[in-house]
C-alpha cells in the first residue's frame, strides 16, 4: 500500500522551565512511562501488525510494537474518526467506521484491527451513531478508557450491557468479551450543562501531554447570514450526489452490521444514540515537552455567531463568544480537524467551520465528517467539499496568506495514510504563548477526579442495566 507521510515541525518551546512544562531535551525523548500491561500488549504479533497497518511499518518497532516518542502520528480511519499515536500510546478520536465490513474492502481494515492496535483512550465527539458506534465494544475489548459527555456516557453503558448479553458477540470466540470485563468510562461535563462553562483536563497522557475537553455546539441550521454571499457551489437543495461509478469500482462486501438472517462474522456494535446524540465535545492535546505540538479535534460545527447548536437551540451570541474565547486561548493549533458536514450547509455553506478555524488560528487543517452523515456528505463527495471550502474562504474575505496549510483528504485513498509531526524539535518563537496556554488550562480539574469521575460498568449488568431504558432508537 502506498503511503503518504507529512513531516512538520510542531509549535515548539525552549528556554526557562515553567509550571507544567519540561524543558530538558533528554526528558523530551524519554516520553510517557508505559505500564507493564501496555508493553506486554504492544509485543503481541497481532498488535504489531495492526499498528503497522494503521500508522505505517516505518513507525512501529517490529520487535516490541512500541510507537515513537519523537513523533505524533495521525491516521484517518474514515468519516470523523482518527487513530493518533502520541506519547507512545494509541488514542481513537471517534470510533464509527464508514462501510465497515466482515473483511477488508473499500474500507481497508476490519473491527479486529482496531481492537488489536491496543488503544489507551477513546474520545467521543458526540453520541450520534456515525461517531460513537463501536465505542463501547472497543473499550470493553481493549480496556481503553472511554471519554464522553454525561448524556453520551449513559448510552455507552447501555450499549455495553446489551453487548454483554448479545449471544452473537459472546458466542464468537474472537469477538467475545474477556471474563469479568468492565467498561472504564469517564464522564466529561455534566448533563445539561451550558456549553463552554465546564473545562476539564484528562489525565491519560500525563505527564507527556495536556489533554483538555469542553462542551461546544453541534451543527444547526440558522437563517442565511447576509454578511456574505451565498456559496455558489452549494447545490440548491443542499444535496451533493454520489459518484455513480463507485458501486462498480468498490463492490460492497458483507457489512459488519447483522442482516436478516445474520451472516457469519456479523456483529451488532451499534449505539443507542440517546440524549447524548447532539451533545458535542471539543478536545485539545498539547505536548508538555519537545516541540510542544498542539492539536485540536471536533466532529461537528455549531453556529458560533448565533451561539446555537442542535442541543442548544435557544443559545445566544454570548454562548458562541464564550466558546470562541476558549478556542482563542488554545491558538495557534498546529493541527486542526473539524467537520465539513453540517446542518447549516444549505443556508450558510461552511461559514461555521471557518469561524472555528479562524478562532484557533489553525496552521494545518484536515477535514472530517466527509463519508457518512447527511445529504451533503458521503463517500466520493470529498472533491466537491474541497471546492465548497475554498469558495467559502474567498466569500468570507480571507486572503490566501491567512489560509491554513490545507491537507484535504479523499476517500478511500487517504484512509490509513499517516500524517507525521515532529514531537521533539524545538522552536523558541512561540515560547510565551504555549507556556501561557499550558498554565491557563492547568488550572482546571481532571475529569477522572472530579464529581462522578471514572465509572466502571461491570459485566454482571448491575452497574449498567438502569441506563438501558434511557437509550432511545438510534439517531444520526
UniProtKB/TrEMBL annotation:
Region (Disordered) residue spans: 449-476
Domain of life: Bacteria
Swiss-Prot/TrEMBL keywords: Signal
Limits of the Metallo-beta-lactamase domain: 78-254
Biased composition (Low complexity): 458-476
Signal sequence, renumbered to the chain: 1-28
Name assigned to this protein: Metallo-beta-lactamase domain-containing protein
Species for this entry: Nocardioides endophyticus
